């Protein structure tokens, strides 16, 4: 069983969350969503808690702020991710120590970090999969699925239901249809209303910083994706000591995953910075020791992981203004207590030649055009995908089959060339557990 002198139980997590929100009502708000499938037999019911944090104080309009949607505890056995969410909320409630670290060499400066926080709104889901967590605390330490046996990170619509050769329904059952699960449906509705610039889905089992795609062995093309990869490269150095696997989950893990939240956020909701962070893994754990495989087991290791990956959100925050998909309105800095446009702060100049005072700078217009072009390409890609995989009659099987075959061939080549020691270890461990059970 988990050492609950180190870890919080589910009830303790939510008690602490409620206390934090109650004590910091000027910047925090807690919503408890009732989620259910009343048509199933028996009905499936759960809940999902969402904490909204606005360090600059509550506002009705979030359009002029950077918006981050952070999801933890999607898989029941990955307790460490929930602990990171709790630590992050504690820091946001009292960011003074984090602000002091902003003055460290190479840091953004205390005033700059404070400005970034005040121009950001977070929506944090501390534990997506409450029913799966119940099963883990009842003794099923290898359970990752929800309360009725569905992996909610295979229940999203992009490439839903496609199965790899080593598909295991005990691990990756995607449900009866896209968004059959209330957890996935609730996150979809939340993201659709919030319209985040950043989606981050936290997991454990290895150390990695992933971006789309999960169902293809490469990252998207274009300047936006390259800028996102550069953000991950910097985070890898700052927050992961250069150890993390980087890039496409479908390439770096060593197998393709279909119907994932991150691919949907990027491709359908057009969230420009869509991430999956794998924050811990023990490759030396015994194949039957799921808890150790996915969670640190000592106080020191626990504190190191939790502190490091809570701080990684602030490191990400510092990097966001450099990304072309983040509108310039969110990147104001301070100089001598006076707010200054970030472009002017860097250059020390006013409007460029040919620009009128108050007119949107040329660079901003160019960045805006780049983002619009990316959004247009994403819409076209989604339409093409629908045409290919939803083609009528026999064309669907033929065209879709050819595409799936090509993806499978590329994926096999990537895997054969050594994609993902940690993922291979996880899958080998799973096979050993299955053999031991026979």
TrEMBL record:
Record-annotated Peptidase M14 domain positions: 6-320
Residues annotated as transmembrane: 397-416
Active site: 278
Keyword Transmembrane helix carried by entry: yes
Descriptive protein name: Peptidase M14 domain-containing protein
Keywords attached to this entry: Membrane, Transmembrane, Transmembrane helix
Region feature Disordered, mapped onto this chain: 328-368
Signal peptide stretch: none
Similarity comment: family membership: Belongs to the peptidase M14 family.
Keyword Acyltransferase: no
Family matches, as PROSITE patterns: PEPTIDASE_M14 (PS52035)
Highest taxon above the source species: Eukaryota
Cross-referenced Pfam families: Peptidase_M14
Cofactor section: Zn(2+)
């Amino acid at each position: 069983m988990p050492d609950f002198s180190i870890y919080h139980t589910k009830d303790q997590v939510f008690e602490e969350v409620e206390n934090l929100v109650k004590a910091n009502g000027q910047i925090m708000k807690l919503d408890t969503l009732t989620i259910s499938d009343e048509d199933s037999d028996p009905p499936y019911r759960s809940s999902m808690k969402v904490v909204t944090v606005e360090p600059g104080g509550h506002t009705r309009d979030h359009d002029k702020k950077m918006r981050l949607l952070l999801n933890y505890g999607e898989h029941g056995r990955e307790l460490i991710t929930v602990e990171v969410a709790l630590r992050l909320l504690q820091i946001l409630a009292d960011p003074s120590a984090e602000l002091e670290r902003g003055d460290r060499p190479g840091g953004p400066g205390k005033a700059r970090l404070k400005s970034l926080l005040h121009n950001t709104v977070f929506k944090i889901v501390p534990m997506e999969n409450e029913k799966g967590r119940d099963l883990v605390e009842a003794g099923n330490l290898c359970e990752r699925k929800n309360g009725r046996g569905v992996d909610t990170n295979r229940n999203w619509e992009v490439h839903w239901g496609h199965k790899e050769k080593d598909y295991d329904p005990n691990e990756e059952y995607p449900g009866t249809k896209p968004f059959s699960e209330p957890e996935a449906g609730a996150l979809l509705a939340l993201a659709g209303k919030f319209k985040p610039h950043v989606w981050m889905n936290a997991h454990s089992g290895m150390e990695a910083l992933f971006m789309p795609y999960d169902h293809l062995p490469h990252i998207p093309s274009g300047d936006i994706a390259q800028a996102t990869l550069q953000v991950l490269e910097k985070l890898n150095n700052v927050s992961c000591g250069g150890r993390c696997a980087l890039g496409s989950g479908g390439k770096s893990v060593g197998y393709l995953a279909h119907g994932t939240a991150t691919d949907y956020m990027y491709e359908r909701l057009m969230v420009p910075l869509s991430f999956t962070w794998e924050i811990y893994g023990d490759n030396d754990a015994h194949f039957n020791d799921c808890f150790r495989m996915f969670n640190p087991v000592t106080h020191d290791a626990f504190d190191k992981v939790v502190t490091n990956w809570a701080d990684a959100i602030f490191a990400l925050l510092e990097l966001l203004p450099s990304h072309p998909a983040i509108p310039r309105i969110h990147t104001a800095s301070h100089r001598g207590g006076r707010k200054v446009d970030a472009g002017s702060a860097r250059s020390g100049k006013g409007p460029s030649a040919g620009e009128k005072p108050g007119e949107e700078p040329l660079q901003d217009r160019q960045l805006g055009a780049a983002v619009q072009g990316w959004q247009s390409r994403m819409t076209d890609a989604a339409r093409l995908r629908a045409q290919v995989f939803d083609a009528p009659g026999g064309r669907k099987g033929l065209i879709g089959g050819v595409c799936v075959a090509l993806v499978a061939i590329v994926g096999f080549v990537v895997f054969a060339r050594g994609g993902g020691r940690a993922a291979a270890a996880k899958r080998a461990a799973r096979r050993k557990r299955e053999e031991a059970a026979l």
